Structures are given as C-alpha cells and as structure tokens.
TrEMBL record:
It comes from Aspergillus thermomutatus (Neosartorya pseudofischeri). Residues 503-512 have a biased composition (Acidic residues). This is Survival protein SurE-like phosphatase/nucleotidase domain-containing protein. Residues 503-536 are annotated as: Disordered. GO terms for cellular component: P-body. SUPFAM superfamilies: Glutathione synthetase ATP-binding domain-like, SurE-like. Residues 517-533 have a biased composition (Basic and acidic residues).
C-alpha cells in the first residue's frame, strides 16, 4: 500500500516524538510505500485546525539512527547529484495541513494514497476530552474529509523509558492491525482511532472494538499564575502534561539503524491558504430544507444541536483476532509476454496485498492441491480454463472464455443494432455509427456482397455526380483485424473494389503468411491490439467486413496542431457482471494535422491524417504529443462548455455500461460471463466537433505499452492496483465483493445474470 504518515508531535525526538521513526521503518520493512509529512514542531492539542493567513513553508528532514536524535533538517531537498537516502517533509503548520499538502502537492509519482496514518501519538487519545482536541485525530479527520481512509494511532505509555524493544513490538503490532483494518474496512467507517498500550507483550493481548467514553470537564482547564513569570513554551507545557501520572524511568538505549533508502527528489514549494468553497455552495443548493446551510441562505438563523463527541459506527463489536498463519491467502501465476504488463501486475499485487498474502508460482503443479486458491494472470491461450471451471469457487482468471459480441467488429455491430431495435431509447443510438456488415472472399464477388448491404449501395449510388465535399464518406474495417489493420476510406463502389483488389495482389505476393485457424476457442476469440504494423490485413481476415459512416468533422485541439485523436478508455468487467470505467483515459493522436478526406486523395491513401493508432507512426507512443492524458487536454475549446471533459466522461460511462448490458443480455451465446473471471478491455471513442463521443471498438488484451513510460505508473500502474482492489481481493475474501466503485473506477453496470461461483 501507499501510506501517508503524519503526526502532531513533529519530527523524531526522544523528548517529544519518540515513536514515528520506528513506525515508518516497520511499515517500509513490511513492503509498503511510505510518504511522511510532519509538523516542524510540537502541534498537540490543536485538533483539525489550519493556520490561515500565512504561507506554509516546507523544510526537509533526513532521518538518522532509530531512537537517536541525529536526524538533520535542511532548507532545500536533495539535489539529483546528492547521495541517496530517505527524506521527509516538515511543514510549519498543523497535522491537518500536513495531510492536505501530502495528498495534493507531493508524492503523485508514487501512486494514490491508500490510507493515511496519523501518529503514533506520544500518549493516549482515549475519551472525548482527549479526542476532541487531538491533533493526531485531527489529521485523520482531515484525511477522511479528503476522501481517504484514515487511522489515528496513539501509544498509551506509562514510562518515559523508551525501550526500543517495546517500541518495536508496538510498531509491529500496529502495522499488523493497520493491514487488518485496511483489508476488512467496515462499511460506513471514515476513520479508526487506535490506542496501543506501550507495555511489554501488548501484541499478545486482546484487540477489541470499543465505544468512546463521552466525558466532561469538571473545572477550568486553566490555572492562574503570576503575570510576572515568563510564559511557558508549548513544548514545556506538553512535557509537563505528559509527566502527569507517568512513572519516570531510564533513558532509552540506542538501536542500530538501517541503510539509506532511495527516495524521490522534492521540488521546493511554498503554499498559500486558498480554499475553494464551490463544493460547499453546490451542496447547499442541492440540499433540502432543514439544514443549517439552507436556513442561513434563506435568511433564517440556524441553531444546530450537536454532541461534543465522536459517534461510533454501530454494529462493529467483539474481539479482533489477528492471524499468525503464514500460509498465503492465494497463489498466483503471472505469465505475460509483455514485460511492461508483467512488472506492473507484480507491483500491483505487492502494493495492494499484505506481505505474504500472495505467493507467486510458475505452474499449476506447484499448488498444494487443485482446490487451493489460485489467481491466473496469463496470456489468453495459456489460461487454464479447465482448472477454473472445475474450481470456480477458488480459481480466478483474467479473461472470459467467450466475448465475441464485444471484441469482433461485425459482432459488435450486430450487438448494438439488435439492442437498439429492442430498446429504441438506448443511449447507444446516438453514440454508435450503425454499420453494414458483409462477407467477401474475392473482389469479383463485391456486387453479390453488397446485395445484402443495400443501404450502403444506395448511399454509394447517390454519391455519383456529387462534388467530393458533398459525398457521404465511409470507413471500411476488417471484422477480425486489430491495431487498425485494413482500415480504408471510400465514397464509391469503384474505390471499394480497388481496395479489395489491392489486398488480393498483396496476398498473392505473400507466401506462407496465412495462419490457419486451429479451431481452439482461444484462436477464435482472441483479439489483441498488439504487435504488427502496416495497414493491410492478412488473408485469413479477408472475409468479414463492416462499413460505417465516417465521422467528420472530429474534435480538433489547437494545442495538438489540429491533429485528430481518439480516446482510449480502460474498462474492467468483473464476474457476472459488474462493469467499471477507469477515470484516467488517454488521448491518442494521428501523425499529421487533420483535413477532410476529400481535400487530398494522397493523404487518404497514407491515412496519416485519419488514423490515430500509434502503431502506424514511426516511433509509436514515444513520439512527442502522440499520447496525452485526457484530463490534461485543453481546458477551453471553442464551441464547447468549460466542463466539456467531464461531460464526455459521463457519456462514455453511460455508453460503456449500456454496450456491456447489450452483449450480456442480448448476445448471451457470444458473451458468456463467469463468476470467477474478470477482464480488462481497451475501449476506443472518437469525439466529434460537437463534443459527442462515438464508440469505435472494444479490445481484449489491449496494448498497455502504448501508454509509454511517462504515464506508466499514473495510468496503467494505478489501473492494475485498482483491479487488484476491486476484482482480485474480493474474490479471495479480502475485500468487499459488493464494492460500488472507487475514486478511480466508476461503476457503470451492475447486472445480476444468475451465475454464481
């Protein structure tokens, strides 16, 4: 997991912050990615406050040896030529501000934060009187308000004898409990408040869900003192408070530290408090009567009765038993031909699973027994579907056996056509160009083939005598090709005939290039937009074709030299059947600026202005500007609203959910879901000049490598991690199987098809 650690005690110090270094070290040793942002000084008893009106400035802390005060603070981060080593951020503000800056201004290259841990606090945070003033809990509350899972952690010490052995036990116990809670997060919980007694053997004692005691002050929190006496510093006040009721002991002995870890270089920044209250006003506008915001907006005085305590989530009680079983929760076989994919899936499992939960093996015979839980992430032709079908409750695979209804172009056309015929108001009607499919073996039989596609013939006939700019243009696609192979533009029957004659000549010149169908299911249903180049099709693919109206004009962006682009959307289908759309989308651009197909016939032939597949471009996705994050495209586009990207994403989600339902319910023979399978699809959309996305095609085993190195972790790495969270962990009982989506995966279809494991 990626864990953000904050506290209210400041950087490591035996005097005021003796526990945070040990916790960070233990989290890192457990295989977690840990980012650290701490207040630069003691900030206890400050709650969930921000210091407004002042710039927030970071300094940079380089930890020293565990339990020794030899860490160093620097005004600027390490340079690229400096020695390696861990480096933390210190912020001259509060724990809540540390959370804000850690979540939104640093560490993005490490991937999204999975949980924020605030602590360990130097002292307990039990009962309402402590909790309501706690900066430690305040940091966790801020994380929860930012949409992150959060844990407040406190060590209830009884002695200042900071025994490294006891602290290490507390850290190991805390990490185990943090991992347990993250894997078993209860519905409705925003944050957990943990208090660990800092006593020898605490890890062997019970861990209980508890209520928070609702208590009150019985007198003043202030004491009258002589005004002539100098003020006591906050650090001395905090030390005096901790001294109350504790037993003084010996000073701790030093423990050896660990070697330096490679960390990222920080960019030095200052921050100005500048909140955006738009969400507040929107929520008031959307709310009904009876709340304080609405009452004040309507000119009334609001009086809101509250309890000065935290409300415990009901229904969670009893003892937490942390397993000491070293057996993995499941075994996995990771076997991808693409090293890009292989490394990212391994990384996703490592980041999202507790150490030891998954054991990687190389073959099925390595399983202790056939029914042992197994996750296969393999190339389609190497997936052992027989094992999956025989062990449907324990064996998970990364592909459905049959999904022609989605990934074959002519099948997809029939899927959409049949669905819209039965559901005339379907969103697919206005987001898919209805196609005419036909079969053709040789160009000489084109006339016969077009008898079935009479609407296409009528369009071509009506084009006769019209200027090119007024003709209806069509795009031809081979039904079983991928990576854009075989795509051509035409507006007459003669042009269409020339295309097929060209392919016949190419086929005659290529001896031994045909790859006959072996008849196996994987050969029939495999569709990978992977290796290969050129714009023709192999002989075995020259049979099924579709012709669709060409989308013109497409949306063009000045920042990308008016080059045509399509959107690559990653879609996760899980079981039978939930469908999720991944929010991080790609924009893939053509090699040359766009011009209408009738303006230059030569440009139509090379298609460089019309095809956006990066495989056609020399250098592919490494070309500058050929692959961009969708959300970083131009904010202002002439003719479209300022929120045009959000609107396109919403439309894509609606279309995606509908097309999967159309296949699952309307083409059940050609799309057969399995309860113990999931699959990632690459779904392509083209946006027209009015901001309407049109569904182009769906690809199984998409070419993740076209994302490139720059966006590798942000897009594909995060996608794989979310896939582990939503598809893998719930199957093996390590997460909520009814998950309704995440901040990165939007649930767009939740169908009950009656197929159970």
């Amino acid at each position: 997991m990626h864990i953000l650690v904050v506290n209210d005690d400041g950087p490591p110090s035996n005097q005021s912050s003796p526990y945070v270094h040990s916790l960070v070290h233990t989290l890192q040793s457990a295989g977690h990615v840990v980012s650290v942002v701490l207040p630069h000084q003691q900030r206890s008893w400050i709650g969930k406050a921000h210091l407004i009106g002042a710039s927030v400035r970071p300094t940079y802390f380089r930890p020293g040896t565990l339990h020794e005060d030899n860490g160093t603070i620097h005004d600027f981060p390490r340079g690229d030529d400096a020695e390696d080593g861990d480096e933390w951020l210190l912020i001259d503000s509060t724990p809540a501000s540390c959370v804000q800056i850690g979540l939104f201004h640093y560490f993005q290259e490490r991937g999204p934060v999975d949980v924020v841990v605030s602590g360990p606090n130097y002292g307990r945070n039990t009962t309402a009187l402590f909790a309501l003033s706690s900066g430690t809990i305040g940091g966790a509350l801020e994380a929860a308000h930012c949409g992150k899972r959060a844990i407040a952690l406190s060590y209830a010490f009884s002695s200042r004898n900071h025994d490294p052995v006891v602290i290490a036990e507390a850290s190991q116990h805390s990490v185990k409990l943090i991992e347990y809670l993250c894997e078993n997060w209860a519905e409705g919980v925003d944050l957990y408040n943990i208090n660990v007694p800092l006593e020898p053997g605490m890890s062997k004692c019970k861990v209980l869900y508890t209520d928070m005691l609702d208590n009150r002050w019985t007198g003043s929190c202030f004491q009258a003192v002589d005004a002539a006496l100098p003020d006591e510093t906050p650090q001395l006040q905090e030390q005096r408070l901790r001294d109350q009721g504790e037993r003084l002991g010996e000073k701790p002995t030093a423990a050896p530290g660990t070697g330096p870890l490679r960390r990222i270089r920080f960019q030095h920044k200052h921050f100005q408090w500048n909140p955006d209250f738009t969400d507040v006003w929107k929520s008031v506008e959307a709310s009904g009567p009876g709340n304080d915001g609405r009452a004040v907006r309507e000119g009334m005085t609001s009086v809101t009765p509250l309890k000065a305590t935290f409300m415990r989530t009901p229904g969670i009680q009893g003892e937490i038993k942390l397993s000491d079983n070293d057996e993995p929760a499941f075994y996995s076989i990771l076997d991808s031909d693409d090293s890009y994919v292989q490394s990212l899936m391994e990384q996703a499992l490592q980041r999202r699973l507790r150490k030891g939960h998954c054991q990687i093996i190389s073959k099925l015979s390595d399983l202790p027994s056939p029914s042992t839980p197994l996750f296969q992430y393999r190339e389609y032709e190497r997936l052992d579907f027989e094992h999956a079908m025989m062990n449907s409750a324990t064996s998970l695979v990364n592909a459905y056996i049959i999904r022609k209804a989605l990934i074959r172009k002519h099948y997809l056309s029939n899927t959409v056509t049949n669905w819209v015929t039965k559901h005339p108001n379907s969103v697919l009607r206005n987001h898919f160009k209805f196609a005419y499919d036909f079969e053709l073996d040789y160009a000489e039989f084109l006339d016969e083939a077009l008898l079935e596609a009479y609407e296409l013939r009528e369009s071509l006939d009506s084009n006769e005598g019209k200027p090119d700019s007024e003709k209806e243009w069509w795009i031809l696609k081979a039904g079983m090709s991928d990576r854009g192979q075989g795509i051509r533009l035409f507006n007459s029957e003669d042009q269409l005939r020339e295309i097929f004659e060209e392919w016949e000549e190419d086929s005659d010149d290529e001896s031994g290039s045909e790859n006959p169908d072996t008849g196996r299911p994987e050969d029939q249903d495999q569709d990978q937009d992977r290796d290969g180049d050129g714009q023709g099709v192999v002989t075995s693919q020259l049979r099924h074709f579709i012709a669709q109206p060409y989308i013109d004009p497409p949306l063009l962006l000045p920042s990308s030299s008016n080059r045509k682009f399509h959107i690559r959307t990653y879609v996760l289908a899980v079981g039978s059947l939930k469908v999720y759309v991944f929010k991080e989308m790609l924009a893939l651009f053509a090699a040359k600026p766009y011009c209408p197909p009738w303006e230059d016939e030569d440009e139509v032939i090379d298609l460089a202005r019309h095809l956006t597949n990066t495989c056609f471009q020399e250098g592919g996705s490494t070309n500058e500007g050929s692959v961009r994050r969708f959300w970083e495209l131009d904010h202002h586009v002439p003719g479209l609203s300022h929120d045009w990207k959000e609107k396109i994403f919403d439309q894509i989600c609606a279309v995606t959910g509908e097309v999967f339902e159309a296949a699952a319910r309307g083409m059940m023979v050609h799309f057969q879901t399995l309860p113990n399978a999931f699959e990632l699809f690459g779904v392509d959309f083209l946006v027209d000049n009015d901001g309407v996305p049109w569904l182009l095609e769906l690809n199984a085993y998409p070419d993740f490598g076209q994302t490139g190195e720059e966006l590798k972790d942000l897009v594909v790495g995060r996608l794989f991690e979310e896939t582990v969270e939503v598809a893998v962990k719930p199957f093996f009982g390590m997460g909520d199987s009814s998950v309704k989506g995440t901040s990165d995966l939007r649930l767009v279809a939740d169908l009950e098809l009656g197929r159970k494991a």
